[in-house]
Amino acid sequence: MKILLVTGESLPYAKSGGLGDFIYSYGKALAKEGEDCSVIMPFYGVMRRKFPQLLENVFDQYDFKMSWRDINVTVFQEERDGVKFYFVCHDVFERDNLYGYGDDNYRFALFMMAVHTFITRHNDYEIVHCNDWQTAVLPLLLNYNSKSIKTVLTIHNPAYQGWGGRNDLSDFFNLSLGYYDSGFVRMGDCFNYLKTGIMSADKINTVSRTHARELLNDHSGFGGMGAIIDWCRHYDFSGIVNGLDIDVWDPKTDKQLAMNYTYENYVEGKKANKRALLEKLGLDPDFQGPLFSAITRLSAQKGVERIMDIFPHLEEKNARLIVIGTGEMEEQFLYKSLPFKNVYFVKRYDEELAHLLYAASDFFLMPSYFEPCGTSQLISMRYGTLPIVSDVGGLNDTVRDVSLGEGANGFTFYNTDYFGCVNAYYRACDLYWAKKMQPLIDVGMHGDYSWAKSAKEYLALYRSIDWK
Ligand code: ADP
């Protein structure tokens, strides 16, 4: 099958969260299955410095219209791990960050229009697989394609929807305002990019079974998006849990670690990494207590308040917490952490340090309010670090509480529950000091997090679409 993954980000080029992991590792898994897989994404300013070789391979250059505007883009290409990557280059992407700008609607409308033209010029894709709101109007645009192309939209995070004005339809996408006036693409008084994809893609999915159920059952959350899916697309909607890139995230080969390790020598391995990390951060390298960590976007979704609830309890158990994160709550997090000497906060995006912290930690905190899938809990388990998670979405599908006995690999608690989270913290400390973590680490480190099974589920989803 000839498949095009359309995305706002992908490792190793540009990543802000789990979507970047998803595209790169799923693309590789499709190539391994013998499928013809391509990825198309914007060429961001940060990539110019980090991947200058991309500029040498111009694949295409073309013009298209966004109502009165004449837009010209260049598309670069590079093949990596059996996947063809295409990069759409235009001034609007020449910035330091991927998203978060006032004109994001325009930037990603331009990206979608560029991809639409790209697909028409190279009209042999059978599946166009879109991801999140930044690509979600594409299935509607492809309705106008001369060749019938099957479309899939994966919702990685329903909280980000792309809210635009009615006029975006004609001004950015050359589409009739009738789509808005009829209610097809409208949510409240906005043109909603994500809803557009939900209404127009052949199949829609989210990234875990539990989150799919949560969306269908929650008609008021996410601005009513669950209700739209339930009422309009219930039978075309499913949940497929993400795999993990087990080549990138492998404590046996990870080059960022001070010492590589497997299950056979995880005690020494984790000890060496803990020491190296503490030394690197200027902390006491002889610290013997439980090390908790979080590597996360500091947004309300991620349960940042629950992490802050732990601060006053660290000293009592001689525990330490190290957090790497950025986001809208970073100042609040920094301010609250100042009085606590057992909290160390790294306020930046740091991929290298993240690898070392996963290996060095004993416990990983992920008290999300909602979590479509989550990648960090899978990485933690693979590195012999026990996850402490709220009982939602993909966390529910992948983490089993210690109280459940056989097969347990971490700690779970009910979401938004202060006592549950603090209680899970104390349960974790007790297990640490009683030296009883090994059976859970065993389950975690031996879990199958590979993409093989999920990639087959996606291929089955593609095949289930009727030819129009
Ligand atoms: P989300 O996609 O909602 O942000 P996930 O758990 O699916 O959450 O994925 C987060 C990914 O981003 C993980 O690989 C995590 O290690 C990484 N990450 C998040 N914040 C940082 C940071 N500040 N520095 C390095 N890596 C980070």
* The CATH architecture of the largest domain: 3-Layer(aba) Sandwich
Provide the CATH superfamily of the largest domain. Answer: Glycogen Phosphorylase B
SS-based class: alpha/beta
Give the strand order of the largest sheet, numbering strands 1, 2, ... along the chain: 3-4-5-2-1-6-7-11-12
Q: Which molecules are bound besides the chains?
A: adenosine-5'-diphosphate
Poorly predicted sequence stretches spanning 5 or more consecutive residues = none
List the domain count as a whole number: 2
Helical segment count: 18
C-alpha-based Rg, rounded: 23 Å
The rough form would be described as globular
Helix content: 25-40%
CATH topology of the largest domain: Rossmann fold
In short:
The chain has two domains: 2-243 and 452-463, Glycogen Phosphorylase B (Rossmann fold, 3-Layer(aba) Sandwich); 263-445, Rossmann fold (3-Layer(aba) Sandwich).
